[in-house]
Design a protein that fits this description.
heterodimer; A: about 220 residues; mainly alpha; Four Helix Bundle (Hemerythrin (Met), subunit A); 6 helices; flat; B: about 45 residues; 1 helix; about 70% helix; rod-shaped
């Protein structure tokens, strides 16, 4: 007896002539909501590896090489990065709330959040360029470089995510998207998309605070 | 006979707790969070 997959092989998923209706934007909105939360959960486990390495290596302190003398981050850069992170997160929340109230000025708040987010990247790169140790200067230095480097990548990715919504909004103000595509009224996905991106950005801000406390204060 | 003191036991205990508590703690916290989200109806607002 032939398998069902063999019988269906080569057949179209939808019979010819049947028109597939556009997907309602509510489905995409729900997926974006869930995607932000799933991404936050996955990111927690990713950065858990660095937190684990920090406390594990610190407690072992093999050959007293946990943190040799002279190895330590610049506190000034750390505070500046923390301030930019918190301010960017606050502006992103303001932008999301303004968009929920349909205030057109949310773009300015979102742009401010993006600018401050980019400042985090610049400050961290400056710190890398001026610090007097590298990833091979002991266990702390390895954890510090790995943790901050991957955090920076997460920051850049999330800023890009927020920027896509800003760009989409600018485009939709000039020329609204057509409603006859795969998604019905795709411009209605800007708000849930920004909500999901801001949620994840706020999660990363919280992670940034934890990173500062562990790497700079503990 | 000269005794050799290895500072192993305390470290072993610390890293054992770390190995168990950190991943399991994170897993439990995230599982509770997802359960709360699910019960509230994720995204249906």
């Amino acid at each position: 007896m032939a398998e069902a997959s063999e019988l269906l092989a080569g057949m179209p998923a939808v019979a010819p002539g049947v028109e597939i209706p556009p997907e309602p934007p509510e489905i995409g909105a729900r997926q974006l909501y869930l995607a932000g939360r799933l991404l936050a959960g996955a990111t927690s486990f990713f950065f858990l590896a660095f937190a684990f390495a920090y406390f594990y290596l610190r407690s072992l302190n093999v050959d007293h090489m946990w943190r040799p003398k002279g190895v330590g981050p610049e506190q000034g850069y750390g505070v500046a990065i923390l301030v930019c992170t918190l301010a960017s997160g606050a502006l992103a929340i303001v932008a999301a709330r303004m968009l929920a109230r349909e205030q057109r000025g949310w773009l300015r708040a979102a742009s401010g959040a993006l600018g401050l987010g980019l400042a985090i990247v610049v400050l961290q790169c400056l710190e890398y360029a001026t610090q007097h140790f590298g990833p091979a200067s002991g266990a702390y230095a390895s954890v510090y470089c790995g943790w901050t480097c991957f955090y920076l990548l997460a920051v850049i990715g999330t800023l890009y995510w927020i920027e896509t919504h800003v760009a989409t909004e600018l485009r939709s103000r000039r020329r609204p998207a057509a409603t006859g595509g795969d998604i019905f009224e795709p411009d209605r996905l800007i708000k849930p998309g920004l909500d999901a991106a801001v949620f994840y950005w706020c999660y990363l801000v919280g992670l940034g605070v934890l990173t500062y406390v562990v790497l700079y204060l503990v | 006979m000269e005794s050799i003191a290895l500072p192993l036991a305390s470290h072993f205990l610390t890293v054992s707790i770390l190995t168990l508590v950190l991943p399991l703690g994170t897993l439990i916290v995230i599982a509770i969070w997802y359960t709360v989200l699910w019960r509230r109806g994720a995204g249906e607002r």
